[in-house]
Amino acid sequence: xxxxxxxxxxxxxxxxxxxxxxxxxxxxxxxxxxxxxxxxxxxxxxxxxxxxxxxxxxxxxxxxxxxxxxxxxxxxxxxxxxxxxxxxxxxxxxxxxxxxxxxxxxxxxxxxxxxxxxxxxxxxxxxxxxxxxxxxxxxxxxxxxxxxxxxxxxxxxxxxxxxxxxxxxxxxxxxxxxxxxxxxxxxxxxxxxxxxxxxxxxxxxxxxxxxxxxxxxxxxxxxxxxxxxxxxxxxxxxxxxxxxxxxxxxxxxxxxxxxxxxxxxxxxxxxxxxxxxxxxxxxxxxxxxxx
Length: 291
Prior knowledge:
The chain is an alpha/beta fold. The protein has two domains: 4-67, Helicase, Ruva Protein, domain 3, CATH 1.10.8; 89-284, Rossmann fold, CATH 3.40.50.150. The chain contains eleven helices and nine strands. Strand 8 (264-271) and strand 9 (277-284) form a beta hairpin. Helix 1 runs parallel beside helix 4 and helix 6 packs parallel to helix 7 (129-137). The chain is elongated and about 70 Å long. The protein starts with a helix and ends in a 7-residue tail after the last strand.
């Protein structure tokens, strides 16, 4: 007989073999996912017998996790901005660092636009974490997410339906070769910004399993910032705001790209909760930064 308690103990023994994990929590998450129950249920029903099929699947997924396969892909779930997102292999797992970008835009819309209707474009939307969070919290906004990946489009649309949002749409396309005709008040992006040669040195969860397309920022990690600024040049209105996530050591380089474009009167950088530089924002035209 295999019980919940036995599975959790054996799952911990499997998962604790590698770094960068939380064995007991992850064993719980895997079993919750398979049983479609919460952690409290596992605690209160430790002696409950589990079917052979579930046990075999649990052991298989625990071994998969031990090899570095992201727990978020196993459970198809990741929390971001207080919202539960469906994620799957082929899209970047949303990070807490990126919440800094979303919070920045919410502040701008509240303070600069007084929560009036604004149009927002999310370039490289992936799971939709940024665009959907903005649509969720800014009810008067009209958000468009664009991505070149079929998996990203599928995942983002699942999340839109999951949260029953009517003020966001997802487009498939290569924005760098086909500019939208629409003009936007705000353009946001969390582009690939890791230097190509550094990717193999990242932890297995990232280097092996997350999509290279969403990670590789070219030789210097700055390739997409240059391209996004040129896209912004074509699609912002008389006044416009561009806000991007950056690597913690890219502040000066990205600020210079913004400055050299000649588009922005004000350029500012915000830090994440860990004190790292995380978001660069440029204000074009006569638009002023919120106080």
